[in-house]
Amino acid sequence: MDFFIKLLFQHWSFNPYLIAVIGLFFLTEYRGYRYLRSQDKFDLAAKLPKRTSLSSRFLIFIAGGSVLLLILISPLNYWAGYYFWVHMIQHIFLMLVSPFLIVVSAPWSIMYWGLPSQWRYRLRRNFSKSQLGTTLRAIGRIAISPKVAIGLFSITMILWMVPSLFDLAMENPVIGFYGMDLSMFIVGILLFSSVLGIDYPHWPQSSPSGQIAGLMVPAVVMWMIAIVIGMFGQHNWYSCYAHLPGITMSSYGSQQIGAAELWVCGDFSLTPALDLVVKRFLYREEMLLKQQDRELSLLTNLTNKN
Questions:
Q1: How far apart are CA 150 and CA 144, in angstroms?
Q2: How far is the C-alpha of 134 from the C-alpha of 16, rounded, in Å?
Q3: Where are the domains of the chain?
Q4: Any idea what the Cα angle at residue 271 is, between residues 267 and 272, rounded to 5°?
Q5: Cβ-proximal residues to 111 (8 Å cutoff; 6+ apart), any chain
Q6: What is the pTM of this model?
Q7: Each residue of 259-282: pLDDT tens digit?
Q8: Could you give the residue ranges of the DSSP H alpha helices within the chain?
């Protein structure tokens, strides 16, 4: 029991900048949520179907942000410096779990109404009419296009698994946070924005094939990495985990467990997104069939009258 108590309550880190930034996003989202609830402007402002619950979106966003915060300041972050397999758990939550929760909550429209009124006016005016706003929108559309989002996600995952870059990130906290952790989180947001869209459950700009590729290609990349580091690699690749004092598990054994996590848990983390993509596609097909039935019924009635 004492061992588990130590795991839960020891080795927490304090990152005031990270806590402040995530706390600011939480506060803005909460203000927008309260404003839309009080003004009954949810459907008009968020432009989402009535069946989508505003409260559910808010809670899912809080869950995604909390996951991001916890994996970076909890004891998980500490033990990731000693065990490669713990570090892979951190990567999965950082690249897949937290970004999925945040994107599926479609927080941007709610967050917009959480800004002060003067900021909303300036943001709307500058973003919609200025050249800078046009450029940023173009960059955003390119960044969440399937080819770019999938490519960035895959390249980021592969690059940070290169032993020299991995060791550098582990030895230098600045590179580890602003290089490895931040880049992984950003490409995760871009990937799920491409697959699910920035205003889920509305259809994204990518086609059904692009959405499926956005889930299948990362899965294949994780398979390849797992095979390389777990099966073909016959020794520990990462010097930062070699000869750590007090660690009974071998570094190569930890590496093999991490490879298995990428193979199984990484792919499993993509399942909820795949489920949403399939359900949304079936829902759209159902709506199209109903529309065709109405049009056929109307045409039949007109024919009978004539």
A1: 9
A2: 34
A3: 2-279
A4: 140
A5: 25, 28, 29, 32
A6: 0.85
A7: 777 777 777 888 888 888 888 877
A8: 2-9, 16-39, 42-46, 54-73, 75-79, 84-92, 98-104, 108-113, 117-129, 131-143, 146-159, 163-171, 173-174, 182-196, 208-227, 251-261, 267-269, 271-305
